[in-house]
Amino acid sequence: MAADGVIQVRGKNYSVYEFTGKVAHSNKQLETVVSGGGGGGATYQGTGGSAPVSIRSTTYTHDDIFLVNTEGQEQVIRLLDWNIATREGHEIQAIWLIKQGKDTGPYIIINNLTTNTVQWSDKKLGELLRLEWWRIFVVPIAILILGGIILGWIVIFAVIAYFYFGVHKPWKDDIQSAKEQLKPFIQSA
Questions:
Q1: Fewest beta carbons within 10 Å, which of 38, 90, 159, 189?
Q2: pLDDT value for 127
Q3: HSE of 3, CA atoms in CB hemisphere, 13 A
Q4: Which residues are registered as beta bridge partners of 113?
Q5: Which parts pass through the membrane (predicted)?
Q6: What does the pLDDT look like over 91-143, one tens digit per residue?
């Protein structure tokens, strides 16, 4: 499938793809994940305590939408946590982005042309546009190291300058002054 266009964000190219078709079938499933922890405790000689129990649940919505375009091509749109309202016969446009150098990318926009409803996935768009890990960590560390090296050299030169102009040169001047003052005390032969 050829890209329908290209967008550029922070100097990176993203190919834009879209597929428009009528819903031949749609399926929605809910998945609930339950996790917990804590509890337990101890008793000693009739006294004791227990730790609080923590239970969490998260529900995920899975949408599978089967689209057929005017040429008869079929595309399955699999979405996680979109919760798309659609039924057979609705006309849907799905738009996704693929980062340059990659083979796949996430759906960003689902446009229900029948109900005139446009849904964006800011989460998927944010994940796609997120800076690479090395830019987040390596560049600031390199700046700190380079800054430390430069600052270190400045401190070294400041210490050298202090010793030369604040200690060595006045000491040499003191020696010269003492010599000049001692000359009258030197006897001639």
A1: 189
A2: 87
A3: 16
A4: none
A5: 133-165
A6: 999 999 999 999 999 999 999 999 999 999 989 988 888 877 666 778 778 88
**Dihedral, CA of residue 79, residue 83, residue 85 and residue 86, to nearest 10:** 20
Residue with the two structure tokens 């798309």: 84
pLDDT in tens, 17-45: 999 999 999 999 999 999 998 878 888 88
In 3D space, the residue among 17, 4, 128 whose CA is nearest the CA of residue 75 turns out to be 17
| Nearest-angstrom CA–CA distance, 16 and 1 | 11
Q: Which of 114, 110, 115, 33 is nearest to 78 (CA)?
A: 110
CB neighbour list of residue 36: distance below 8 Å, 6 or more residues apart: 53, 54, 55, 56
Residue showing tokens 């997120």: 130
1, 2, 16, 6: which is closest to 94 by C-alpha?
16
Going from the C-alpha of 103 to that of each of 62, 64, 98, 126, the distances in angstroms are 23, 21, 7, 18
33 alpha-carbon distance from chain centroid: 26
Provide the residue type at 49 as one letter. G
Compute the distance between CA of residue 150 and CA of residue 55 in angstroms, rounded to an integer: 52
* Residue 110 structure tokens: 């689902």
